[in-house]
Amino acid sequence: IIWFNLRQEPSIYINGEPACARPPNKIGEYAELGNVSREKLKEDEAEFVRVCEGRMKETDGKLKTVDVNKAEKEVEVKSIVTLHDVIEGVKEKFPGLVHMRIPICNSASPLESDFD
Fold it and tell me: Per the confidence metrics, is the pTM higher than 0.70?
């Protein structure tokens, strides 16, 4: 199994549901974030979790999220993990799984470095 992930933004899972860090003006739209590397995304995901945990301390364990339809909701967080950690857990069940993270822009040709 080869799992391709082409998203440019950091992705986490809150109570098992996916969420991503996006600029407010890009919610529900293509997020063209420029030259993003997979290494930077891994770092950004860990930072995104830390930011969320800090906000949870201020709001009694709750976070506000906005979905693709721009509907805001507040959830009580029972678990929060990075996409990287989710993939590592899936690899335990599926040892042959290969996760290919290639963050590319939606409206332009991939960069040459995207193929390396």
Answer: yes
pLDDT in tens, the chain (116 residues): 899 988 888 889 999 998 888 777 776 666 666 677 888 888 889 999 999 999 999 999 999 988 878 888 899 999 999 999 999 999 999 999 999 888 877 666 666 766 66
Q: 86, 42 in Cβ contact below 8 A?
A: no
- Distance in angstroms (rounded) separating the CA atoms of residues 103 and 111: 10
10 in Cβ contact with 37 (< 8 Å): no
Query: CA geometry: angle at 51 spanning 36 and 34, to 5°?
Result: 15
CA distances for 79 relative to 8, 62, 67, 110, angstroms: 23, 11, 18, 34
Residue linked to tokens 């860090």 = 21
* Cβ-count burial 58-91 (b if 16+ within 10 Å, e if not): eeeeebeeeeeeeeeeeeeeeebebbbebeeeee
At residue 90, φ and ψ (nearest 5 deg) are -65, -35
